[in-house]
Write a structure and sequence with these properties.
279 residues, alpha/beta, TIM Barrel, 8-stranded parallel sheet, 10 helices, 37% helix, 15% strand, AKR
Length: 279
């Protein structure tokens, strides 16, 4: 079923009914303190209602501060964080969650993810996330960078299915088989690095579409993500880019254009390989 795309505050339901805003601000590499605080405030001022951070980003405190200073009610902001590799395991994940919540100064987190599938640890880590979910400390739980074989290994032992899988996703890494698997199991696909770490501006197909629609290449890819049913969290600390990345609700790509962007797939990663990165 095609997912409805309306405006910057639009949401899609996760498997448990929790609504996730389909467009958010990523804050990877945003420096804690004034930089990330201001980026979060600019995003919320522009209408964003989804902020994605992680323990390893070392900016959770600034994210929490930005949300508080924005004046936007807490219940209107969807906040994601992630447990880092060295904290994985049952007890250590629970401790890591407590530390993230202390830094964010939140009582309840909207979404908590396992950042990478650390071999031999992610099942115990998932058990901890299930406990946090059962305790009402997090509204939704999921994973990040889990490939199909990781999910196939996790699901038989899971009491609760992951509601989200956040993955590297862009025209060079489409992974249609993994997308289909996630749809089959009610797992929402989410994109990190949607703008290809700047390489979007080198793609002739995307530049041609940008010229056709009077949009930027970045806006074309954000729109492609959304029309493909993929939650996306482009990152920026620049106000103009934060605003521009969200100006994607006044045009629509055709089915042929979506397929043309899909055809750029090279199975090529710009980030780490989930099968070799976690230690």
């Amino acid at each position: 079923m095609e997912k409805k795309i309306t405006d910057i505050k639009g949401t899609w339901p996760l498997a448990n009914g929790v609504e996730i805003p389909y467009l958010g601000l990523g804050v990877w590499q945003a420096e804690d303190g004034a930089e990330v605080v201001q980026a979060v405030k600019w995003a919320l001022e522009a209408g964003y209602r989804h902020i994605d951070t992680a323990a390893v980003y070392k900016n959770e405190a600034g994210v929490g501060q930005g949300i508080r200073e924005s004046g936007v009610p807490r219940e209107e902001v969807f906040v994601t964080s992630k447990v880092w590799n060295t904290d994985q395991g049952y007890d250590s994940t629970l401790r890591a969650f407590d530390e993230s919540m202390r830094l964010l100064e939140l009582d309840v987190l909207d979404l908590y993810l396992i950042h990478w599938p650390v071999p031999g640890k992610y099942k115990e880590t998932w058990r901890a996330l299930e406990q946090l979910y059962a305790d009402g400390r997090v509204r939704a739980i999921g994973v990040s960078n889990f490939l199909q074989h990781h999910l196939e290994d996790l699901l038989p032992d899971a009491q609760v299915k992951p509601m989200v899988d956040q993955l590297e996703f862009h025209p060079w890494l489409v992974q249609p088989g993994l997308q289909a698997y996630c749809r089959q199991h009610g797992i929402q696909y989410q994109a990190w690095s949607p703008l290809m770490q700047g390489k979007v501006f080198e793609q002739d197909v995307v530049n041609d579409l940008a010229a056709k629609y009077g949009k930027s290449p970045a806006q074309i890819l954000v729109r492609w993500d959304l029309q493909r049913g993929v939650v996306t969290i482009p990152k920026s600390v620049k106000r103009a880019h934060i605003i521009s990345n969200a100006a994607v609700f006044d045009f629509e790509l055709t089915a042929d254009e979506l397929a043309y962007i899909d055809s750029l797939d090279r199975h090529e990663r710009l980030g780490p390989d989930p099968d070799v990165f976690p230690k």
